[in-house]
Amino acid sequence: MKKHILIVPGDGIGQEVTEVGKKVLEKIAAKFGHEFTYDEALIGHVAIEATGNPLPDETLEKMRASDAVLFGAVGHPKYDNDPSAKVRPEQGLLKMRKELGLYANLRPIKLFDELLGASSIKPEILRGSDILFFRELTGDIYFGEKGRKNEGDTAYDIAEYSRYEVERIARKAFDAARTRRKKLCSVDKANVLETSRLWREVVQKLAPEYPDVEVEHQFVDSAAMMLIKDPKRFDVVVTANLFGDILTDEASQIAGSMGMLASASVGDSTGVYEPIHGSAHDITGKGIANPLASVLSAALLLDISFGLKAESDAIIAAVDKLLKDGFRTKDIADETTPADKILNTQAAGEELL
Amino acid sequence: MKKHILIVPGDGIGQEVTEVGKKVLEKIAAKFGHEFTYDEALIGHVAIEATGNPLPDETLEKMRASDAVLFGAVGHPKYDNDPSAKVRPEQGLLKMRKELGLYANLRPIKLFDELLGASSIKPEILRGSDILFFRELTGDIYFGEKGRKNEGDTAYDIAEYSRYEVERIARKAFDAARTRRKKLCSVDKANVLETSRLWREVVQKLAPEYPDVEVEHQFVDSAAMMLIKDPKRFDVVVTANLFGDILTDEASQIAGSMGMLASASVGDSTGVYEPIHGSAHDITGKGIANPLASVLSAALLLDISFGLKAESDAIIAAVDKLLKDGFRTKDIADETTPADKILNTQAAGEELL
Ligand SMILES: CC(C)[C@H](C(=O)O)[C@@H](O)C(=O)O
Ligand SMILES: CC(C)[C@H](C(=O)O)[C@@H](O)C(=O)O
């Protein structure tokens, strides 16, 4: 198969982990006889530094022209500590999502057996949990009008959802539930928010079309609690942009570490694959970042954008083997890990496939 | 001391647990020689049934005329499944918060030693954690304009914060941090929301007035993860209404159970004290609800509204003793709890003081 993949490392450890993700794609191409070509583009802080723009037109054009994008992370502490900055790395990420119509963000939360002990949650609570989140990614309070009034003394953000926006993400979630344990949990705050009431209405209206899927509605506060108390009760979860942002980061603890979690953003055109973790400037340049989330993002890319299931499974099996062989990156190591089994970013990549 | 306390049980298990909270207040009055008088009023679903109004004027007047309010819970599944209902129990709760100016919601997350095993989180992660949340309670997306447009096909909710609103809650949190471990974590989503950027600006501006308090800013997604990964790193947490709703429910797992967590809502006038848990209609009428959150809310009431620290401590010590004596309500019992140590709601109340 011939495919063109755009590598967009972005900021911080995004650079380090995406390099490993790309290496793994190269190994897969060699092994399975595919012809993948690559290009690279800038986004986020590094794009601002180079061009003044967090998402240069050139990057967007390259994304549109590619068959899939392997993405790193964006963000820089400089902006976090300056709430008044007008140009920010995250704008590049949000604009990319909007421009490419990436309305569905899939975040599979699956625990590798070997990491059962790495979580702060008890193994007996975790064992067997397997959740697939569908986070809406191009609407909600992220994209509504925002600004200041009263001479800057009042700030506002508008959350907005249309029926159409809710329906298309809900359908994706229903479809996925059908191929899994046939349970869908829709998370909202319908006892307070009008956007949530519309959300619930739409999901309720779709439910009769999926009689084989058991639908449950949960308030976001209660869901945040239940995820930790009893993660096994969840199968597919569908929720709005902001709630999805919070709940999936929280749920990373179910997988033992944020450093293991991949995501796929799909919609109208090119799909974008990226780790859930951020740019992590505190460990940038040390070579200790866990590259497995980027590697598993590459696996999602092969499966979802290219339909290469065997190749995708080969990557997952390789990650599993690495863990079974006792290797760990620093973030998932514990006091029982022998020093010679602790791998840096690059070495972890070399150990795979 | 002469004080007038209004009991507002509300819906579901609110009725059952508040009865126990009141009994404990009566015992304290007898023991310490205080004269507490009581009245009762309706809110939520029961108020809608009786008067058509989730917060009748009479209830509001009684609240204003009392020295403190012991509150239960509001909510009813009937409305949850009907997103189009115009009159809803929660409107009573929100109107109460607004009308009484209850802008600061204090939620202490403290683990009783005996419950170390009751949580889904590992004991070694939990041991020693002690967090005090300050959730802003009268602003944000809860109270901005909300509605529909495009013939009902688009829903919107406006989040809003003024400098003044952020400053008053932040000051309360800074003041509290001074009396504790001197660490304040302000949680926002300043990389996306304008309200969060204002929030961060205000907290940053106040920080130099509290040089003895170490201030940290965290994004809400990351905070949701950190709370579970390493709860001990938090001391005082201050955040907006919606984020506070989600994070404090999540944090209930740090305390072993939602059924143990009390909260205080304070501001311009009468303080309101209530469990964090909701109306829990699935267990209503069974007499098995854990009343300890209501009992601990009574303890907060005595301490914060009446300045009766010794009396408040007596309640906390009584709860501690009940647990040390091996008694449990169903929600905090486990397979090691002998059947004769499992108490129903009323019996748990009788065991105290
Ligand atoms: C960086 C930030 C804007 C982003 C988000 O909130 O969507 C990130 O947290 C994510 O989850 O991809
Ligand atoms: C019932 C609901 C409106 C309420 C809230 O969201 O504030 C509740 O969850 C709470 O935390 O007190």
UniProtKB/TrEMBL annotation, chains A, B:
Pfam families, alphabetized: Iso_dh
EC number: 1.1.1.85
Residue sites binding substrate per the record: 97, 107, 135, 221
Chief location: cytoplasm
Name assigned to this protein: 3-isopropylmalate dehydrogenase
Isopropylmalate dehydrogenase-like domain: residues covered: 4-352
Cofactor binding summary note: Binds 1 Mg(2+) or Mn(2+) ion per subunit.
Native species: Dyadobacter luteus
GO annotation (BP), single: L-leucine biosynthetic process
InterPro entries with a match to the protein in the record: IsoCit/isopropylmalate_DH_CS, IsoPropMal-DH-like_dom, Isopropylmalate_DH
Keyword Cell membrane among record annotations: no
Reaction catalyzed: (2R,3S)-3-isopropylmalate + NAD(+) = 4-methyl-2-oxopentanoate + CO2 + NADH
Cofactors named for this entry: Mg(2+); Mn(2+)
Record's keyword terms, sorted: Amino-acid biosynthesis, Branched-chain amino acid biosynthesis, Cytoplasm, Leucine biosynthesis, Magnesium, Manganese, Metal-binding, NAD, Oxidoreductase
Protein purpose: Catalyzes the oxidation of 3-carboxy-2-hydroxy-4-methylpentanoate (3-isopropylmalate) to 3-carboxy-4-methyl-2-oxopentanoate. The product decarboxylates to 4-methyl-2 oxopentanoate.
GO molecular function: 3-isopropylmalate dehydrogenase activity; magnesium ion binding; NAD binding
Pathway membership: Amino-acid biosynthesis; L-leucine biosynthesis; L-leucine from 3-methyl-2-oxobutanoate: step 3/4
Gene Ontology terms: cellular component: cytosol
Residues that, per the record, bind Mg(2+): 221, 245, 249
Site (Important for catalysis): 142, 189
